[in-house]
Specification:
- The chain is mainly alpha-helical.
- It has 2 domains: 108 residues, no CATH class; 224 residues, Orthogonal Bundle (MetI-like fold).
- 73% of the residues lie in helices and 4% in strands.
- The chain has 13 helices and 4 strands.
- The strands form 2 sheets. Strands 1-2 form a two-stranded antiparallel sheet. It has a two-stranded antiparallel sheet with strand order 3-4.
- Strand 1 and strand 2 form a beta hairpin.
- Helix 9 runs antiparallel to helix 10, helix 10 runs antiparallel to helix 13 and helix 12 runs antiparallel to helix 13.
- The chain is globular, with a radius of gyration of 24 Å.
- The protein starts with a helix and ends in a 7-residue tail after the last helix.
């Protein structure tokens, strides 16, 4: 087991190095291949209102005309040991891990992102609990009651959940439950979980974003769980368990559901990692100041360091989520540890 964990940790670290190289290439190498100059890249650091002279001066101070190998070395050094930026008369410090420095706001990106993480974490975890419970239980019941009215209604609802985008269901739920019935807070800071004064207040503020986000994922999980259960319940070992006289509840929960949850665990790790990297549509719809909203604001203001920081942080969350999934595989299926 220890050897298995060490192999996965080494693989995760190697993948993180690859992600940093790919991210650097996307933001700095690809624009160069497309004909962009150092001044073109510098324009994404200073915003849309900067003049040509200011942009050129920024390109010189940031070394955007240096060879790409030198720029990549400076980029990695900033992640490990921090960086210094001379923008104006003073030298600006960006402590490690330096994911970038926003010259528009004159602040390092990493502390700003850490201030947004609690909001995104609250949204992602709350919605994950709802969609796991709702999606998996609906999928199991639909498989066990195949052809029933419940199964048909559940799959139609799941199809609607998969098809309808977040910004549609979010705005519709806000219109009905917030602005018409007045049951939940509206969008903006009024629903910010960081303003909650108690756990009940937190649930009241976040219930609508949780349900809206969970509706999409619960639909996907219900369909996948149903398909997995239908396939698993026809296996030979299920018939053997029934022939031995095991109660149907034991057969379903211990043998059927456990096997059907393997693909669910895979996509759950990926989905949760993506959401921790920023639930862009949900946060924008409900005005939640999380990582996704931060990324949207950075795109609007043309602030490249913020976008770069969000990309790296999202990649880190996905790598960590995949690592956790690998370790959970070893717990659910001991055969994985020897593969």
């Amino acid at each position: 087991m220890v050897t298995f964990i060490l192999r996965r940790l080494i693989a995760a670290f190697a993948l993180l190095l690859i992600v940093t190289a790919v991210t650097f290439a996307i933001f700095f190498l690809v624009p160069r291949l497309g004909g962009a100059s150092g001044d073109d890249l510098a324009s994404r650091y200073v915003g849309k209102s900067a003049g040509a002279e200011q942009i050129h001066e920024t390109a010189q101070k940031l070394g955007l005309n240096d060879p790409l190998v030198v720029q990549y070395g400076r980029f990695v050094k900033g992640l490990v040991a921090g960086a210094e930026y001379q923008y104006g008369p003073e030298v600006e410090q960006c402590p490690a891990p330096c994911l970038g420095y926003s010259f528009i706001n004159q602040t390092p990106v990493f502390p700003e992102l850490m201030g947004r993480v609690p909001v995104t974490l609250t949204l992602a975890l709350g919605a994950a609990v709802l969609w796991l419970i709702g999606g998996v239980s609906t999928g199991v019941l639909s498989a066990l009651r195949r052809g029933s009215l419940f199964e048909r209604a559940a799959m139609v609802t799941a199809l609607a959940g998969v098809s309808l985008p977040i910004y549609f269901t979010g705005l519709l739920s806000l219109t009905i439950f917030s602005y018409t019935l007045r049951w939940t807070p509206g969008g903006g800071n009024s629903s910010d979980p960081m303003f909650a004064t108690s756990p009940l207040d937190l649930v009241h503020r976040m219930l609508l974003p949780w349900v809206t986000l969970a509706f999409l994922y619960a639909a996907i999980y219900a369909r996948m769980t149903r398909a997995g259960m239908l396939e698993t319940m026809n296996e030979d070992y299920i018939r053997t368990a029934r022939a031995k006289g095991l109660p149907e509840r034991t057969v379903v929960l211990r043998h059927g559901v456990r096997s059907a949850l393997t693909p669910i665990l895979t996509i759950f790790g990926l989905d949760l990692g993506l959401l921790l990297g920023g639930a862009i549509l949900t946060e924008s719809t409900f005005g939640l100041p999380g990582i996704g909203k931060y990324a949207v604001d950075a795109i609007v203001t043309n602030d490249l360091p913020k976008i770069l920081g969000v990309t790296l942080l999202a990649a880190l969350f996905i790598i960590v989520a995949n690592l956790v999934v690998d370790l959970l595989y070893a717990v659910l299926d001991p055969r994985v540890r020897t593969s």
